[in-house]
């Protein structure tokens, strides 16, 4: 595994591609907005004008795209899609967070042409992408997973082969459900503290010392109470992930009122103009709209 | 602080009174159902037939009762209430979880007679009560708090003077809000894991390694998935605490959709016959009623 194609140079993709170059891979990049390619070109990447020009010669093609439809287009566009040039034995590693059922379908289509497909969504945010410390949850064949080991090592720290195709994405979405609901617990506790007149440092220390403890409670109450809503992970993106999770729950035939509530809250928060806040901005949205 | 009156020998109160005896206090106990007094009488406690007979000679009277109305009756019943015998300088320590605003009122009434009043609700469950490792959140005057130090040391480990009258209870209820919402996050994640076909041990390890981590996620998913719903802390009691929290939020003028949802879920779960389950029984209630 020497030559990598990389499509999607957003907030996450750009530093990930840079880390691949640093690790010594030959990298060919493509991005819809060409301007985003320049820093990587300066760092030694080749730039391709079309997705279809990324695949030839690559051992693996990595996708890091916003949503399901973007992945579909990059793969299967009749004129420009990478499927027009992919060859048997190549691996496509989709690190985007997209609909698991669609991902399984994409993999099925590619496997008919003996192209391998892994869903490999990440968590750890922009900081994890820059530092090369992402958590990566991978679904797909164990063989393809093993072949990509050098890739995982250049990009992340906690690498987990979860199960067959789609399982990486399902786990990622379950993680987002747990994070979002836990964030609401922290948000409502912080609102109660602010309005009750309790001394915040004492109250938070007490909550953190007991069974109410959580990652969200560690990260966000001080930011909420002090009005620091800089991202981190944006409300707009959590909204998207929760939409995917709602869809997954529906596919599984599950009614999840907590998830449904959080999806509604993030939808409302984005509609109210808080989409570019970090997710802790749920606090100021709710202070305003759930007074 | 040598002589303690203790009223309310339930699941929590009985082991707490036993710990006071072990620590060398002279303890007079009362319980509405007299049978519950026998083990403590055998351990050296004096038994009083009426709340009013508990106060004379006591440095402090501890209450550990189910709800606000029980505390009101034990304090102010015209014939049997301890207020009929309380004298200036005595301290009443209410360790029950009750309505904070009512608690503040009770304290105001007692302070007119120079009786001190502390709200001192606990967390840590039956195990904490037995082991003497409860967390105790105290509201009221710092002087009265300090005078009760020997009492705190016999009953708990994390002792926090939170602020003025009512603040111990407010913090306790905020803790319950955070715990209940965090429990829902864990419940919905566990349901998604069960229905998605993911390998539970791998999925849970991944969730616990990241920002989804929480006290509830540490404690309950295996019990949920294996069908172990033994209490712990009962659904019936969480339902009661959430009712108090909903009332507090209303008093503070806050709309908290997460709390409202959890209150509804616990209400439904109790109505459906799951009241004596541990709170992780939320899982089997939702599997049945939110299929």
Q: Structural class of the helix and strand makeup of chain A? A: alpha/beta
Tell me the radius of gyration of chain A.
20 Å
The separation of the N and C termini of chain A measures 55 Å
> What is the name of the CATH architecture of the largest domain in chain A?
3-Layer(aba) Sandwich
The helix content of chain A is: 40-55%
The H-and-E topology of chain A, N to C, reads as EHEHEEHEHEEHEHHEHHHHHHH
User: Which chains share the greatest interface?
Assistant: A-B, 63 and 63 residues
- Sketch the major β-sheet of chain A: 6 strands, parallel
Under CATH, the topology of the largest domain in chain A is which?
Answer: Rossmann fold
Q: Strand-residue fraction of chain A?
A: 5-15%
**What spatial order of strands do you see in the largest sheet of chain A?**
3-2-1-4-5-6
Structure write-up:
The structure is a homodimer of 291-residue chains. In chain A, the strands form two sheets. Chain A has a six-stranded parallel beta sheet with strand order 3-2-1-4-5-6, with helices on both faces. Chain A has a three-stranded mixed beta sheet with strand order 7-8-9. The radius of gyration of chain A is 20 Å and the shape is elongated. In chain A, helix 1 packs parallel to helix 5 and helix 8 packs across helix 14. In chain A, strand 4, helix 3 and strand 5 form a beta-alpha-beta unit. The relative contact order of chain A is 0.10. The termini of chain A are far apart. With 291 residues, the first copy, chain A, is of the alpha/beta class. Chain A has two domains: 161 residues, NAD(P)-binding Rossmann-like Domain (Rossmann fold, 3-Layer(aba) Sandwich), CATH 3.40.50.720; 119 residues, N-(1-d-carboxylethyl)-l-norvaline Dehydrogenase, domain 2, CATH 1.10.1040.10. The first copy, chain A, has 14 helices and nine strands. The longest helix of chain A is centred in the middle third of the chain and has 30 residues. The interface between A and B is large, with 63 and 63 residues.
